[in-house]
Amino acid sequence: MQLARSDSVSDYIIAPDPKAARLTRSVEGVDQNGSAEVISVVEERPLTIFLNAQEIVTAMTIGDYPDYLALGFLRNQGMLLEDDEITGVEFDEELETVVVRTQRETSYEDKLKKKTRTSGCAVGTVFGDMMEGLEGISLPQTTVRTSWLYELASKINRTPSLYLEAGAIHGTVLCKENRALVYMEDVGRHNAVDKIAGWMLSEGVQADDKILYTTGRLTSEMVIKTAMMGIPALASRSGFTAWGVEIARELGLTLIGRMRGRRFVCLAGEERLVRDVDPATVPIEDKKHRRKSAQ
Q1: ∠ CA 4-8-12 to the nearest 5 degrees?
Q2: What 3-state DSSP class applies to 266?
Q3: Contacts of 163 (CB under 8 A, 6+ apart)
Q4: Contact (CB, 8 A) for 51 and 100
Q5: N or C: more exposed end of the chain, with fewer CB within 10 A?
Q6: Of 208, 256, 268, the residue nearest 232 (C-alpha)
């Protein structure tokens, strides 16, 4: 099997920009030998999200794509409905706020009273019942070819990214078959997913033929967000939580984790997995292209 060898970002719709000035900062320190060293570290800044006149949450984020982050967060929280008419998205860089305005009058006082801090990095938050809105979800029984998974992993691992520049960050990639389309990064994997959800909502992109790839753990929150977006398959280099697997099985979501080199584990939706390539024929990537992952 021939894997993609190019690290070009030209075929992405949105790709990481590891050299963007606002996303990292050079910091001086000393190494284990006491020698001076200058490294790049990821910036982290607050972003307060409003829905009409109501303040919803302040998220810690790297600061790119605030409009997509706000839209995706509100959609994945069930605060933006399928038929909502969005009349405006206003970002104020100085005040570090983004306001999403809808034609429908909204009030989520009761929902905001019930808050769950999730296991996401940078402290993810879910408002209301975590399972709220999942009852009516019916995910398409879309097949996933193992050749796509290997090609995607090779492409994504070779893509110049903020992770490779500075570390301490998660990536999430929207894919279609063997093509990586939109690659978002943030300090929390939930933020990266919400940015993709916001982009899909803004651009009217359908979800039933997509795969979501994440570098983070496959937790209940990640599974729920993927299902809320209508995406039928979720894959990761990292491991699983038991509740995440249970929810994926209940919803009919294909869940694939521990994708490293030739290996992966499918814990939900195995019947939708098409094994169209012998893993022994998949080339082993150079060490410089292998990402670390949390179990």
Answers
A1: 95
A2: strand
A3: 16, 169, 170, 171, 185, 215, 291
A4: yes
A5: C
A6: 208
